[in-house]
Design goal:
Layout (H helix, E strand, L loop, with lengths): L5 E9 L11 H9 L5 E6 L13 H11 L3 E9 L2 E6 L16 H17 L3
Antiparallel strand pairs: 1-2, 1-3, 3-4
């Protein structure tokens, strides 16, 4: 969000986590569960040129976007980025890692992937 000079639209699609949640979005996840929600949709719309959205410091919106980034939904932001209107989505940032080929032992391959796995797991602590 910080990279945008102005944000005109935010779309958030969430579903409750299974089984764990992260402190950052625990309140949102607990609320979805207590309401019996299976799918949640939210959209904020503003006028980009005259009244852009003021959401970059909103903790609730940031928590929902983090929940989507952690794999429990999807978030989309539309606004001005690098001088032109663009839409970015959590779908645009899949996690990937490279590892040596099949000629290596499974232990060696896992060793190469361990840092990436550790980074993903740390997001849930």
């Amino acid at each position: 969000m910080a990279r945008f000079s102005a944000i005109s639209r935010v779309r958030i699609y969430l579903h409750p986590s299974n089984p764990n949640n992260r402190d950052l979005w625990k309140r949102t996840d607990d609320r979805l569960r207590s309401l019996g929600v299976t799918d949640y949709h939210e959209q904020y719309q503003g006028k980009q040129q005259t009244t852009p959205l003021r959401i970059t410091q909103d903790e609730e919106v940031r928590a929902k976007i983090a929940m989507a980034e952690d794999g429990y939904g999807r978030a989309e932001l539309t606004g001005v980025l690098d001088g032109e209107e663009q839409t970015l989505s959590t779908d645009d940032n899949p996690v990937s890692a490279t590892a040596p080929g099949e000629e290596e032992t499974p232990e060696t391959i896992l060793e190469h992937l361990l840092a990436k796995f550790t980074g993903i797991i740390s997001r849930f602590r």
